[in-house]
């Protein structure tokens, strides 16, 4: 029988045994968020959860229930123009005016309190000394909250908190929002949740503003067409490649965690 590694299915003695062996506790995080008409709202937390499971299987430790929470705030004029807006609109995260359903973003201050309290419980009540936050969401203020808490906890508590993101950063891969990579991983783990038929057929353009599907270059201001580029087109998604990229990503994160627990702070170098 496969060993149970998810906290909600474990007895107290099993959780204590993991702690006594020095095993880390993994906390997958991400909000329910618009990811285009073709993907489920849980893309980010589901990828975080799968990442946490894979890392715990490889390194030992336990996986907490996914914290379906995250935050966003209004986009800056520069970022709005990068994506294809005028620059003076009020747009929070990926909730573009044409989206049919809003994301469930917590307010930044609420998310920070929630995560702080969670980390305190793990350190003070459960007495874990190694915690790995596995994050799936790239909102700038979301990342800033995690970084801020991680720095504070690593400085003033006996625990060491690491922060990783299961997102590839290979030379030829770019991770956008609801584009190729996210679509492919969802196809690997949750094939029924993906429906490419919800997007117009190729070669019709996928305008960033219309679908709230934005490629990496689009966020960075390097895509003046404001349409998803050919290389990141989610309609080309291939689960076999998705599997391959995922395994490489997990392999890298595994090495990062294995090699770096001695450091005070471990932060995945991946850009969101
Ligand atoms: Zn995402």
Description of the structure:
This protein is α/β, with parallel strands linked by helices and 272 residues long. Helices cover 40% and strands 7% of the residues. It has 9 helices and 5 strands. It has a 5-stranded parallel sheet with strand order 2-1-3-4-5, with helices on both faces. Strand 1, helix 2 (43-59) and strand 2 form a beta-alpha-beta unit. The mean pLDDT is 92. Zinc ion (ZN) binds next to helix 2.
Question: In summary, what is this structure?
Answer:
The protein has nine helices and five strands.
Quick tags:
about 40% helix; Rossmann fold; alpha/beta; about 270 residues; binds zinc ion; 5-stranded parallel sheet; globular; 9 helices
Number of helices: 9
Uncertain stretches: none
| Proper CATH architecture of the domain at 7-173 and 247-267 | 3-Layer(aba) Sandwich
CATH class of the domain at 7-173 and 247-267: Alpha Beta
Overall 3D shape: globular
Number of strands: 5
Rounded radius of gyration (Å): 19 Å
The helix content, as a percent range, equals: 40-55%
Main sheet record: 5 strands, parallel
What proportion of the residues form beta strands (DSSP E)? 5-15%
Strand order of the largest sheet: 2-1-3-4-5
Q: So, the CATH homologous superfamily of the domain at 7-173 and 247-267?
A: Creatininase
> Element order, helices and strands?
HEHEHHEHEHHHHE
Overall mean pLDDT stands at 92
Distance between the termini: 37 Å
What molecules are bound to this protein?
zinc ion
> Which fold name corresponds to the CATH topology of the domain at 7-173 and 247-267?
Rossmann fold
């Amino acid at each position: 029988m496969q060993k149970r590694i998810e906290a909600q299915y474990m007895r107290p003695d099993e959780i204590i045994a993991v702690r006594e062996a020095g095993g880390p506790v993994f906390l997958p995080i991400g909000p329910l968020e618009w990811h285009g008409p073709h993907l489920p709202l849980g893309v980010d937390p589901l990828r975080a959860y799968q990442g946490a499971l894979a890392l715990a299987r490889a390194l030992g430790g336990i996986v907490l229930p996914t914290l379906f929470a995250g935050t966003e705030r209004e986009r800056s004029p520069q970022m709005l123009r990068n994506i294809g807006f005028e620059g003076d609109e009020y747009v929070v995260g990926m909730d573009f005016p044409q989206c049919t359903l809003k994301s469930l973003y917590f307010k930044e201050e609420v998310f920070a309190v929630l995560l702080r309290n969670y980390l305190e419980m793990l350190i003070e009540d459960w007495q874990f000394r190694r915690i790995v936050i596995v994050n799936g969401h790239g909102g700038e203020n979301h990342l800033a909250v995690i970084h801020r808490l991680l720095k504070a906890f690593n400085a003033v508590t006996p625990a060491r908190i690491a922060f990783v993101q299961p997102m590839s950063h290979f030379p030829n891969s770019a991770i956008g929002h609801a584009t190729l990579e996210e679509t492919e991983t969802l196809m690997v783990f949750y094939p029924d949740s993906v429906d490419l038929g919800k997007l117009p057929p190729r070669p019709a353009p996928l305008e960033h503003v219309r679908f709230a599907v934005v490629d990496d270059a689009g966020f960075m201001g390097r895509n003046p067409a404001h349409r998803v580029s050919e290389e990141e087109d989610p309609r080309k998604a291939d689960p076999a490649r998705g599997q391959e990229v995922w395994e490489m990503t997990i392999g890298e994160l595994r090495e990062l965690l294995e090699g770096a627990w001695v450091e005070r702070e471990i932060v995945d170098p991946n850009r969101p």
